[in-house]
Amino acid sequence: MQLWPFARKKEKEHPAFAQNHSWFTNIDQNQPIECYNFVVFDTELTGLSGRDEIVSIGAVHVRDLKIIAGETFHSFVRPHKITNATDSTLLHRITPEQLAHAPTLKEILPKFIEFCGPSLLVGHYVSLDLGYINKAAKKIFRSTIKNPCLDTMRLAQVYTDICWENHHDQFNLQVSFNLADLSRDYGLPAFSQHDALQDSLQTAYLFIYLIKKLKVQGIVTLKELYTAGQKWKRIF
Amino acid sequence: MPHKNELHNVSPEIVLEFLKKTLPFNELDRDTLKRLARQCIIDFYPKNTLIFKQDTTEVTHFHLIQKGGVKTYLKDEQGQVTLKDFRGEGEYFGALPIIQNTTANLNVETVEDTFCFLFHKEAFMELLHSAPKVTTYFLRSMSEKLVRTAYKELRQHRVSTRTEGSLYLFSAQVGAVVKGEPQTINAEDTVQNAAIRMAQLHIGSLLVQDAGGEIIGIITDKDLRTRVVAQGLDYQTMVKWIMAKPVQTIESHAVCFDALLKMMSNRIHHLAITRQGRITGVVTTHDIMVLQGTSPLYLFREILAQRRAEDLYQLSLKVPLVVRSLIEEGAKANNITRMITILNDQILDRLLTLMIEKMGAPPVKFCWMLMGSEGRREQTFRTDQDNALIFELPEDEKRRLNTIEYFRIFSEEVIEHLVHCGYPRCPGNIMASNPALQKNLNGWIKAFNQWMITPDPQEVLNTTIFFDFRSGYGDENLARNLRKHLCAMAPKQEIFLAHLAKFCLHSRPPLSFFKNFIVEKNGDHKNRLNLKESGLVPFVDFARIMALKYGIAETNTLGRLQLLHEQHHISQELYNETVEAYEFLMQLRLIHQLHLLEEGMQPHNYINPADLTDLEKKTLKEAFEVIRKIQASLNQQFRLREI
Predict the structure, then answer these.
(1) CB atoms < 10 A from the CB of B91, how many?
(2) What's the pLDDT tens digit per position in B483-515?
(3) Can you name the CATH fold of A30-235?
(4) Which of B2, B4, B44 minimises the CB distance to A208?
(5) Can you give the pTM of this predicted structure?
C-alpha cells in the first residue's frame, strides 16, 4: 500500500554498490594487518579544482602483504568536458584520442568496485582520490563506496615519527611526503610518474614497505595502525 | 604503456623489464615472459628478516631479488654457522628446494631491505619443463649444490661439478647409460649373501626376485648399512625383510634428466629401467653423475678408481667433454689442452698399471714415451697415437729374448686398449708396438744422432715428431737422459737445423695479395682454411727448432717460447705476438672441433672463413701476420739465404 502517492520513486541502488556496502558494515579491526586484502589505487585528474575530472584509474591487489603483480586494473576515463581532455595531455601524456575512445565513469566505476571486492583501499593521500571517485559516484549512482581506506602518506608520517622517537635524531622538518620523494628516500624501485597504474604500483611498494617496517616497531593489527594514525593527527 | 581497457591482464612492465635483463629469463620469448610476469608476486622483507629457515621452511615460491640482498648460510646442530654466499639484485634463491620438493636447504636472511619477485613453485616447474635453456641454466648453477645435498655418497669426494655438460642430461636416454643385465637375488636369500654378491660384482644394489622370478624389491648397500648393520640385525636375515619395495621404475627411453628428477623427488638413488614392462637394468645417481660429470677433477678421480682396462674405455670418451665446461669457464686453450693431457696421461697411467698387474712386473726398467702433440702436451680431441718404448736390454741372450717378448705382448695389448679408449692407431705406425721403435737408450741416441748428423731431406719432416718426446709412464730417467743427450747434440747440428728451418718457410701464411684468406681449392674442404697446417704448425715448428737450437728440454710450444724469451733468444715483441696468435688459433680450433663433435661429426681442422665473425676474421688475419714475422726471424737466425 502506498502511503504517499507523490513520493519520488526511490531509485534502485546499483548492485555493485549494494554489494560494496554489505561488505563493510561490520569490520573486525583487531586482526593482524596481513589478514586483510588491500587494493592500492591511484587516479589521474585533469586538475585539482571542483570542475576537474578523473581521466584514469589504476589499481593493484595486495594480499598477505604481497603485491599481486598480475592482478591490476587500469583504465582511461572519458571526461564529460572536452576541455578537460585536452588539459590532461599536458600532465599525463594521455592523448585526447585515448580519452575519446575511453569508457565513461558510469561504465568504469562498477568495474572498479567489482575489482576491489571486499578489499580495503590504499592510496597516497587517498582522501583526494576517493573524494573525486565518490563525488562522481554520487552524481551518477547516488551512492558512494564504503571501503575503509589507509593512507600511505599518513603511514609514512607515523613511520617517520617512530624513527625519530627511537633515534632521538634532530627533527627534520624538510622531509617531503610526496610519493616519489618517499620512494627515493626509502630506496624503493622507481616507477615512472603520472600514470595511474605505475603510481599505484609505486604506492603498493611504499605500502608493503611501511607496513612491514611498522610491524617491526610493534604495530600489528589494523586497529593499532588506525590508532597510530590518530595519535599523529593529534600532535599536528 | 597499457591502452584503453586492459583490465586484469596487464603484464606488469616492471617485472617484464626486469626479467628481460636477467639471466636466464632473457632467453625466453616475449609471450612466455609475459605469462610469467603476470604470475609474479612482489614481496618486501625488511633487513635481517629470515626468509627461509633451513630444514623447516616449506618453500612455495621461487625468489628473484629485485632490490636489496640476502646472505645464505648453514647452521649445524651445534649452532655453528657456515656462510655460503651473498646474493644480490638479479640473483635468486629457492630453486633447489622446489626442484627437489624438500624444505629449505639453507637459511636465507636479508642483509638489506629487500624486494623480491616471487613465482609460485608450480609456475616455476612449468617453466623448467617448457624451457630447456632455463632448465639448463638452473641445473648448471645448482649442480654444486645438488652434489652437496642430493648425493650424500659423493660428499666426501668434494666434487666440483659446477660445469657439467648438463645438456647430455636432456639427450641421453637412461637405457643407453646402463651397461649389463640387472643383477638379482632371491627374496629368501640372506643379507650376507647379498653383500657378498654385491662385493663380487662391484655394484651397489641388487634387484630382489621372488620364487617366480618376479622383481619385487631392491636392496642397496645403503640398506645393508642402515637397516642391517646399524640395526644390529643378524646377517642371516632374509633379504625380503629389509628390501625397499616396490621398485621405483623408469622407462628406458626417458632422458636422464627425468630419471634425476624422479630420484631427487623420491630421495632415492636407484631406479629400475623398464622396457615394455620388463626390467632391463638399474640406473643409479652415480651413473648419471658419471654421464654428467665432465668436470676434470671428477673424471680424474673416476679414472683412478677403475680396476679393469675395459672400464676405462667409457671414461676416456668423456675427456673431450671437459673442453666444453672449461671453455664455458673461460679457460684459455693452453690450459684446456694441458688439462686434457693430464687426463689422457692419467688414463695411460691407469692402463699400464693394470697391464703390469696382469702381466707381472716387467723384467727391466722401461719408459713409455709419448710424442707429437701428446709429447708437447697439446692434445685436444681424439688424436692419433704417437708412442715408443725405451727399455734396457739384458746381456744374457735368454733374458734378452724374454724381455723383448714381454714388451711385444705388453705394447700390443696396451695399444689395443688405447684404440678402444678412442685413440686411433697411428697411420705411420709410430707406435710402441713397432719393433723399430723399441730400443734401449743407446739405440735411441744413435737414432737421433743419425737423423741429425746425416739428415735425409725426405726424412726430416717425418722425424720431427720424435723430437717432441716425453716420458708417459715408467722410468722417467730413461727419457730424461735421452733428452739430455739431445740438448747437448742438437745445437751443434747446423745443417739439420737449417733443413728444419727451410721446411718452416715452405708453409705460406694463408693470406693472398688481396688480404683474403687462401682456402682449399678442391675436395671436401673446398673454400675452407686448414687451421692446423696453415695456422698452428708454423708456430709449433718455430718453437721446436728454436728449442733444439738453444738446447731447451721443454716440449710444450708455449713453454718453449717462454724459455726462449727468458733466455733472450726471441724479443719481447715477437714473444708476445707469437703467444697471443698461437693461443687464439688453438682456441678457435678447439671451439670449432667441439662444435663439430656436438653436431655428431668427426672433428677436423677446416674452417670456413665465412662462418667467422668480423672480429674473429680480423684476429685470425693478425695471427697469420705473425707467421710472416716468425719466418722472417728464422730466415735471419739461420741465414737461410746463404745456404
Answers:
(1) 16
(2) 999 999 999 988 888 888 888 877 666 654 334
(3) Nucleotidyltransferase; domain 5 (3.30.420)
(4) B44
(5) 0.48
